[in-house]
Design brief:
Blueprint lengths: L2 H20 L6 E7 L6 H16 L4 E8 L9 H6 L5 E5 L12 H4 L4 H6 L2 H10 L3 E9 L3 E5 L12 E4 L4 H6 L3 E4 L5 H6 L5 E5 L13 E7 L3 E7 H6 L2 H16 L6 H16 L3 E4 L2 H22 L4 H8 L1
Helix pairs in contact: 2-10
Length: 326
């Protein structure tokens, strides 16, 4: 082969290389996600839908691999903690399960304010700064299942829980104990068995995320409800900062749409509550409604115990957050 041909081939190769360098092919980014609830369970479905919507919009740019949910992949109380350390890139979780990462997390369920208001009044900025210290980026509130209720196998006629053993999550532990209950922690899948064998006589849970089989072991719902039950999308901060602008735009825009549908009292929530209330009524469940002084005692205990827990856990930030969230 002549020197002229070799020189021509060499020049062509250099030209191709130059084009490859100047016009890089963008690789699709795959993120690892986890749910704080069993996959397919009512409280996990909203996050699963968010993942599907992001994957549909992000083809060729960013995809999410939802690897599983608690307790199958680990303790539900440590999923977010593991994410902050890099085991996952993002999680869908309730604030009730992130207290070991963010002591101030309960304010997210105690507020009656919309996310739009909290984003404008500085509330979410405050929370985001606290989370950033733990290597967590707050993306969005992707669901709200409405108020919590106490659900019972035994009837009570006043706001006194003495003599009852209740299954609890961190959400309402302080509240139930303040009214005399004994409590125990247990993962979601064990609630049915614990109620069936009378190990516990009740549990707290939001009305719009109820598990239908529980109707067989639950006879009463206590009104009024208390708090809200938001679910949040949280990101490993270092991973978030490593993403390109296009990926972050897709993740932010899809999450923002879900957040609009997660405001308290939204049409989707009202429809879900109406559907589930009808199902429970058909199953024969009765409603215990506190009124007058009993109602006041019930709600005062609920919010008094919860806010005091915030102040005790976070003397530095509790009062400042109360001004923004309460």
């Amino acid at each position: 082969m002549s020197k002229r041909i070799l020189l021509t081939l060499g020049a062509s190769a250099l030209a191709v290389a130059a084009v490859s360098v100047s016009q890089p092919v963008s690789a699709e980014t795959t993120l690892r996600a986890a749910s704080c609830f069993p996959i397919g369970s009512p409280p996990s479905r909203a996050f699963e839908q968010l993942v599907k919507d992001i994957n549909a919009a992000g083809k060729g740019t960013v995809q999410i691999n939802l690897v599983g949910g608690a307790p199958a992949i680990g303790n539900f109380l440590t999923i977010t903690q593991k994410m902050s350390r890099g085991a996952y890139d993002l999680v869908g979780c309730t604030e009730a399960y992130i207290g070991n990462v963010l002591p101030e997390a309960p304010v997210l369920r105690l507020t009656p304010k919309s996310m739009a208001e909290l984003r404008s009044n500085g509330g979410m900025d405050y929370i985001s700064k606290l989370l950033a210290e733990k290597n967590i980026y707050y993306l969005a509130r992707h669901q709200d299942f409405g108020p919590f209720h106490l659900w019972l196998s035994k009837k009570i006629d006043k706001p006194d829980l003495t003599g009852l053993n209740l299954r609890v999550a961190p959400v309402y532990t302080a509240f139930f104990k303040s009214l005399g209950a004994t409590v125990q922690n247990a993962p979601l899948p064990k609630i049915y068995t614990l109620m069936e064998n009378n190990t516990v006589q009740g549990y707290g849970w939001p009305g719009a995320a109820w598990v239908p089989p529980w109707a067989k072991v639950t006879k009463y719902r206590v009104d009024p409800g208390f708090y809200t039950s938001p679910l949040h999308t949280l990101f490993n901060l270092k991973k978030w900062e490593s993403l390109d602008d296009k990926s972050r735009t897709i993740l932010t825009s899809i999450s923002a749409e879900h957040e609009k549908n997660a405001e308290p009292g939204n049409a989707r929530l009202k429809a879900q509550l109406a559907k589930e209330n009808a199902m429970r009524a058909k199953a024969g469940m009765e409603i215990i409604t506190f009124t007058g002084a009993d109602r006041k005692k019930w709600l005062d205990a609920a919010y008094g115990a919860a806010w005091q827990e915030v102040f005790d856990r976070s003397p530095k930030h509790g009062k400042a957050l109360e001004k923004l969230f309460r």
